[in-house]
């Protein structure tokens, strides 16, 4: 017996897809929410650093598994490698219900007003596809507010003079600073900067029927043992399921978007938990699989109507892949700055996010999440021993004496940084895999150097006796856990993939709701913006449906 026809299919139960599923199901639409992974819990990996989302030496705690997934990465010299999820070049996002919101650091940033109009602010940049969004910050502000209150954010926006205007405060008070952050807070004040508490998608007080954070060191890269970290898995997805209108299908890999003989989208094919190929039909399909996997699915969905893949009539699907070039500095202090009050990151400055002379954009600078011992083995001043007695001595002496100031530089969009589907390599289910290629824009390094210089100055003012910079940028492939941009929204179908509501230009009933939509990726972690876009796309579909629009 075949699957029952539904109103909407949502592909991907992460930051965007979980929210869309909730918005549609509570509005009365019947929904099937597909997730390629399963439910993930803290007990699955506990505090095993070698299997955390950040350190995948022994595999991915939150998926995908190495046995069935792979990608092809093209190197700068044109050679290509098959890469597994536990290898750095894979550009992994989690594969589980909630996706990266289960294990992320949970910073909750709104993009700034300038981020939505970069071309207007900075002018064209040679070799770049820099452009303005088809929406403004003011258009997205109500959706940011919904995300902050429905998912849950702790913070204090009044301390950040550079933040965009808002109509409502955060629902929870900010977290107190740990010892390291207090040192940096005071130093920033002395330098004339404007430090403020990082807004966090974590409960600083009981909220949403879940307890307050217990401030463990193992937070970023790990699931929360008390369910205080706020993600779609413990907020909107349960609401969607409880509505009675949403069926969650886990361990189900969507392989293709279906098109009928009239060229209309009718549903998807997928492989179920037993690896059986199935079909699910629907009136609407929403793809929320991440910038890499969403582009891959669209490109793999070829037909006589869409010979280059759905939405790819003008060859824009998969292009403009962005992530963040993380950049900053380290400092060694005479006394211990580590006090074991997790998750570590709590203070930020946004003084260098925009309007830096000669630089496009910039980024926020923060103290870093607590680094576990294995991760710390890679933190050494230039010229230090990378193994042996000297290396171990540094580890013992300085683990509690090193602080870092770091942030995500807003990369300049680059058309040749892209996701394709490989012509020969296929995954376990026979689906052509993603093929990643291209480099960051050559001017990214200038912004990264500026931010690293400011970070080093900040650490010195805080009392560091030895400092060194860690400059991001360079010519490597971008993407990573902050991947974005491969299905950018816009008003012109010739230079974008979707309209301002995330709808594929040439297809009335196919939408995108994840970081793929981002025209640029801001100088911040993009999680809250992806959530806001989920509320915008889901809210638009639900509103139009209530008016009788069936997107035919």
Q: CATH top level? A: Alpha Beta
CATH superfamily, called what?
FAD/NAD(P)-binding domain
Q: How many domains?
A: 1
Strand content: 15-25%
Q: Could you name the ranges where pLDDT drops below 50 across 5 or more consecutive residues? A: none
Count the DSSP helices: 10
Order of helices and strands: EHEEEHHHEHEEEEHEEEHHEEEHEEH
Structural class: alpha/beta
Mind describing the biggest β-sheet?
7 strands, mixed
Silhouette: globular
Query: What is the mean predicted local confidence, pLDDT?
Result: 96
Radius of gyration: 22 Å
End-to-end CA span: 27 Å
Using the coordinates shown, work out and report the CATH topology. FAD/NAD(P)-binding domain
- Kindly state the number of beta strands: 17
CATH architecture: 3-Layer(bba) Sandwich
What is the helix content?
Answer: 10-25%
């Amino acid at each position: 017996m075949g699957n029952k026809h539904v109103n909407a299919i949502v592909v991907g139960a992460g930051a965007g897809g979980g929210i869309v599923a909730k918005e549609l199901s509570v509005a009365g639409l019947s929904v099937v929410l597909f997730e390629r992974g399963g439910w993930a819990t803290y007990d699955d990996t506990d505090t095993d650093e070698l299997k955390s989302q950040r350190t995948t030496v022994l595999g991915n705690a939150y998926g995908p598994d190495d046995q069935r997934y792979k990608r092809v990465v093209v190197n700068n010299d044109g050679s290509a490698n098959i890469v597994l999820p536990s290898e750095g070049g894979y550009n992994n996002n989690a594969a589980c219900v909630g996706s990266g919101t289960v294990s992320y650091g949970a910073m909750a940033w709104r993009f700034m007003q300038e981020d939505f109009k970069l071309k207007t602010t900075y002018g064209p940049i040679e070799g770049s596809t820099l452009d303005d969004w088809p929406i403004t910050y003011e258009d997205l502000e109500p959706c940011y507010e919904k995300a902050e209150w429905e998912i849950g954010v702790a913070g204090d926006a009044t301390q950040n003079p550079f933040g965009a205007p808002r109509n409502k405060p955060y629902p929870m008070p900010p977290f107190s600073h740990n010892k390291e952050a207090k040192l940096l807070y005071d130093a920033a004040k002395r330098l004339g900067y404007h430090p403020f508490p990082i807004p966090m998608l974590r409960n600083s007080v009981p909220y949403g029927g879940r307890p307050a954070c217990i401030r463990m060191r193992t937070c970023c890269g790990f699931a929360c043992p008390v369910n205080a970290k706020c993600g779609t898995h413990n907020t909107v997805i349960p609401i969607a399921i409880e509505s009675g209108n949403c069926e969650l299908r886990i361990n189900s890999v969507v392989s293709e978007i279906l098109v009928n003989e009239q060229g209309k989208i009718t549903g998807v094919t997928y492989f179920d938990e037993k690896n059986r190929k199935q079909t699910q039909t629907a009136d609407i399909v929403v793809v929320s699989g991440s910038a890499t996997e969403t582009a891959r699915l669209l490109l793999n969905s070829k037909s006589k109507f869409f010979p280059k893949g759905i939405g790819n009539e003008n060859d824009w699907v998969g292009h403009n892949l962005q992530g963040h070039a993380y950049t900053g500095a380290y400092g060694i202090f005479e006394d211990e700055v580590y006090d074991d009050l997790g998750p570590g990151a709590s203070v930020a400055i946004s003084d260098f996010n925009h309007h830096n002379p000669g630089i496009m954009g910039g980024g926020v600078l923060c103290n870093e999440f607590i680094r576990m011992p294995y991760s710390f083995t890679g933190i050494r001043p230039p010229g230090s021993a990378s193994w042996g007695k000297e290396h171990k001595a540094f580890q013992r002496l300085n683990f509690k004496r090193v602080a870092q100031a770091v942030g995500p530089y807003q990369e300049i969009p680059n058309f040749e940084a892209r996701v394709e589907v490989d012509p020969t390599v296929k995954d376990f289910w026979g689906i052509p895999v993603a093929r990643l290629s291209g480099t960051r824009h050559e001017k990214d390094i200038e912004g990264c150097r500026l931010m690293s210089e400011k970070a080093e100055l900040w650490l010195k003012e805080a009392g560091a006796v030895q400092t060194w910079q860690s400059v991001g940028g360079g010519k490597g492939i971008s993407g990573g856990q902050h991947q974005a941009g491969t299905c950018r929204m816009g008003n012109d179908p010739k230079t974008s993939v979707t309209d301002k509501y995330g709808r594929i230009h040439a297809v009335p009933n196919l939408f995108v709701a994840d970081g793929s939509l981002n025209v640029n990726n801001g100088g911040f972690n993009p999680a809250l913006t992806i959530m806001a876009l989920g509320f915008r796309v889901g809210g638009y579909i639900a509103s139009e449906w209530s008016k009788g629009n069936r997107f035919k």
